[in-house]
Amino acid sequence: MTIGKGSAMAPNTSLRNGERISIGDNCHIGERCSLWAGESNGKISIGDFVSLAPNVFITASDYQFKKGLNFRQQAKRDRDVTIGNDVWIGTNVTITAGVTIGDGCIIAAGAVVTKDLSPNSIAGGVPAKKIKERV
């Protein structure tokens, strides 16, 4: 794992496959956050000046869900998660594999981000949707 200057991470942060996790400068990773990079690919890249409130879960891997195959038969997919600069992520947010969050985004508490967010979006909900734009 690489962590930038001035960044701080709560001691009870959960990391998986840390060699594929990078955190920029002046970031804050709150209590009980989980950053789970993929097993063979699936990087998590966090920009500068990013704040993760407590209990944020970010995963860079998931499973396919093809009809006729049980859970154990499903193929696992590793896909990068990219979080831009100056992003605020609220308590209990989940960010799924393959998502890119643009610079300046704010994500409301409890949101589940399953799709990319354009820069300066304010998003919330399950699944997360753009509510308005940051001004």
The average pLDDT value, as a whole number, equals: 96
Q: Widest sheet: strand order?
A: 2-5-8-13-16-18-19
- Give the N-to-C terminal Cα separation: 33 Å
SS-derived structural category: mainly beta
Principal-axes geometry comes out as globular
Compute the number of strand runs: 19
The largest β sheet comes out as: 7 strands, mixed
Q: What is the N-to-C succession of helices and strands? A: EEEEEEEEEEEEEEEEEEE
Describe the structure.
The structure is a single chain. The chain has 135 residues and is mainly β. It has a single domain, classed as UDP N-Acetylglucosamine Acyltransferase, domain 1 (3 Solenoid). 0% of the residues lie in helices and 38% in strands. The chain has no helices and 19 strands. It has strands at residues 2-3, 8-9, 14-16, 21-23, 28-29, 34-36, 44-46, 51-52, 57-59, 61-63, 76-78, 81-83, 88-89, 94-95, 100-101, 106-107, 112-113, 121-124, 129-133. The strands form four sheets. The chain has a seven-stranded mixed beta sheet with strand order 2-5-8-13-16-18-19, with no helix packed on it. It has a five-stranded parallel beta sheet with strand order 1-4-7-12-15, with no helix packed on it. A five-stranded parallel beta sheet has the order 3-6-9-14-17, with no helix packed on it. β18 and β19 (129-133) form a beta hairpin. The chain is globular, with a radius of gyration of 15 Å. The termini are far apart. The model has no long low-confidence stretch (mean pLDDT 96).
Describe the structure concisely for a colleague:
The protein is an all-beta fold. 0% of the residues lie in helices and 38% in strands.
